[in-house]
């Protein structure tokens, strides 16, 4: 039995749900040329696809208490390890995954947790 379940399109989304391949609008600041002004800043929107997890609380989603939904990008530990050499060993990845023995400091090293 898995700790998660795959839901179908008839279920409501909630906090912690993962949406693979979610299409998102990403604002990109741009400098515009304008005959009336020397420097005008604007925003261009690009569409990107990402795997995300819903961070907004389920009760707020269910009761329509929010105008925007907070999403956070996610990636697998294996993909993360490709960019982070310190996590390429299976033991290090498993320790990070379950967290009982190691703390992760992205600017430092994997280190035993102080008790």
Summarize the structure.
This protein is an alpha+beta fold and 115 residues long.
Task: Explain how this protein is built.
There is one protein chain. By secondary structure, this protein is of the alpha+beta class. It has 2 domains: 1-74, no CATH class; 87-115, no CATH class. The chain is 18% helix and 32% strand. The protein has helices at residues 58-62, 77-83, 90-98; strands spanning 18-32, 40-54, 71-73, 102-103, 111-112. It has a 3-stranded antiparallel sheet with strand order 1-2-3, with no helix packed on it. A two-stranded antiparallel sheet has the order 4-5. The model has no long low-confidence stretch (mean pLDDT 77).
Q: If helices are DSSP runs of H or I spanning 4 or more residues, what is the number of helices?
A: 3
Report the C-alpha radius of gyration, rounded. 20 Å
In the residues, how many domains can be counted? Answer: 2
Mean pLDDT: 77
**How many beta-strand segments?**
5
| Helicity level | 10-25%
What are the segments in which pLDDT stays under 50 over at least 5 consecutive residues?
Answer: none
Question: Shape, please?
Answer: flat
Distance between the termini: 32 Å
Please give the order of strands in the largest beta sheet.
1-2-3
Q: How are helices and strands ordered from N to C?
A: EEHEHHEE
* Protein structure class: alpha+beta
> What fraction strand?
25-35%
Largest sheet: 3 strands, antiparallel
Task: Please specify the SSE layout and strand pairing.
Blueprint: E1 18-32, E2 40-54, H1 58-62, E3 71-73, H2 77-83, H3 90-98, E4 102-103, E5 111-112
Antiparallel strand pairs: 1-2, 2-3, 4-5
């Amino acid at each position: 039995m898995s700790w998660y379940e795959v839901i179908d399109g008839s279920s409501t989304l909630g906090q912690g749900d993962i949406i693979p391949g979610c299409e998102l609008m990403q604002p990109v600041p741009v400098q515009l040329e304008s005959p009336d002004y020397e420097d005008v800043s604007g925003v261009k929107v690009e569409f990107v696809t990402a795997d995300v997890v819903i961070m907004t609380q389920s009760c707020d989603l269910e009761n329509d208490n929010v105008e925007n939904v907070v999403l956070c990008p996610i990636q697998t530990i294996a993909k993360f390890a490709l960019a982070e050499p310190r996590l390429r060993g299976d033991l290090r990845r498993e320790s990070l995954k379950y967290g009982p023995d190691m703390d992760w400091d992205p600017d430092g090293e994997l280190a035993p947790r102080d008790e």
